[in-house]
Amino acid sequence: MKRRTARVVAVLASVLVFLVPGSALGRVIPNACIAGVGLWDSRERVAREWGLPIRMTAQGPDVAWHYRNGGVLLYRWHRPPAPNRWIVLSITTTDPRERLNGIGVGSWRSEVHAASLDGCPARAEFCTLAVSRGESRFTDVRLKGNRVVSLSVGLSSDFDDGGILRYADRRCRSA
């Protein structure tokens, strides 16, 4: 009887995983974070949330950490009076469970067009879903053909004009 109960519980748990919508599994906060990793987070925080990367590549002075379903771009922050540390400049996911207002990997261009700020032109490779102009943050999707292939949150190039180290949005922390 115990085996049968355990088997029923295991089957129900696996069914629930497939029935829960992607937005409940993933966590995207526009202009802030994806899956518990936020802009301005340290590389140690990324490693705690996502583990060690499967590959690292240099991109100029920045370092990209690559994961099975996404990656982060890290930048060495060293402007005084802030500490000398690595911070997250962008987070990208290719995991279809990570969604923002129903938009994520696999979504159609028409869905992105309806949800984006400025629409999504027919041949555009990137479309913006959200922008925080005051803090130079953005949320974009990358498209191939008419389908979304990745979702990204990032800081634009003028993020450090003020020279002030910021910290990740508290909403990005796992419960």
Task: Give the number of domains.
Answer: 1
Helix content: 10-25%
Number of strands: 12
Strand order of the largest sheet: 4-5-6-7-12-11-10
Structural class: alpha+beta
Mean pLDDT: 81
Strand portion, in percent?
35-45%
Elements, N to C (H/E)? HHEEEHEEEEEEHEEE
Radius of gyration: 18 Å
Structure description:
The protein is an alpha+beta fold and 175 residues long. The protein has one domain (21-166). It contains four helices and twelve strands. The strands form three sheets. Strands 4-5-6-7-12-11-10 form a seven-stranded antiparallel sheet, covered by helices on one side. Strand 11 (137-144) and strand 12 form a beta hairpin. The longest helix is centred in the first third of the chain and has 18 residues, at 2-19. The chain is globular. Mean pLDDT is 81; it is low at 1-25.
Would you spell out the secondary-structure blueprint of this structure?
Blueprint: H1 2-19, H2 22-25, E1 28-29, E2 33-34, E3 37-38, H3 43-50, E4 55-59, E5 62-67, E6 70-77, E7 85-93, E8 99-100, E9 103-104, H4 109-115, E10 126-132, E11 137-144, E12 147-155
Antiparallel strand pairs: 1-2, 2-3, 4-5, 5-6, 6-7, 7-12, 8-9, 10-11, 11-12
